[in-house]
Amino acid sequence: GGKWSVEAARMAVADFGGKVLNAPVEIVSADHQNKPDIGGPIARQWYDQDGVDAIFDVPTSSVALAVSQITKEKNKIFMDSGAGTTDLTGAQCSPNTVHWTYDTYALAQGTGAAMVLPMLDQVAALAARPPPERRAPPLPRVQPAPRCAPPPAC
């Protein structure tokens, strides 16, 4: 988000000639202050009064959820690349919203497994070991979650 995100979008538009299907592309931006009660009305005004066809970015989950609902209501396009909530592809999934990057589930599963699983043997080796007659049977090995799972269907 912020001014550098806007500048990157302007550079991308310039890179492909400033048009899509022969129609000019215009970049507009606003500060939603990380508040859905500000970001939602901005999206509504863009769609209703300013002729905006698509909204991109919105790096705050609460604002992205508000924009997603308004986008669905207006049958426009919202492509999010910053919000992390799983609700964008889960409970509040919309055919008008593309959740482009990570979500909190993927971060927790991938990072947690990558950090914890390699250390399980080390932790077990550091623990005090009782004599063989007092040892519990070994625990089964924990298998990591799949690295990539397809997103749920809307």
Explain what the structure shows.
The protein is built from 5 helices and 5 strands. The chain is mainly alpha-helical and 154 residues long. β1 (19-20) and β2 form a beta hairpin. The mean pLDDT is 85.
Give structural attributes.
3-stranded parallel beta sheet; two-stranded antiparallel ribbon; elongated; 154 residues; mainly alpha; 40% helix; 5 helices; 5 strands
Walk me through the topology.
Blueprint: H1 2-15, E1 19-20, E2 23-24, H2 36-48, E3 54-57, H3 61-74, E4 77-80, E5 97-99, H4 104-116, H5 120-126
Parallel strand pairs: 3-4, 4-5
Antiparallel strand pairs: 1-2
Helix pairs in contact: 2-3
Uncertain regions: pLDDT < 50 for 5+ in a row? none
Largest sheet: 3 strands, parallel
Strand tally: 5
Q: Determine the N-to-C terminus distance.
A: 27 Å
Brief summary of the model shown:
Helices cover 40% and strands 10% of the residues. With 154 residues, the protein is mainly alpha-helical. A 3-stranded parallel beta sheet has the order 3-4-5, covered by helices on one side. The chain has a two-stranded antiparallel sheet with strand order 1-2.
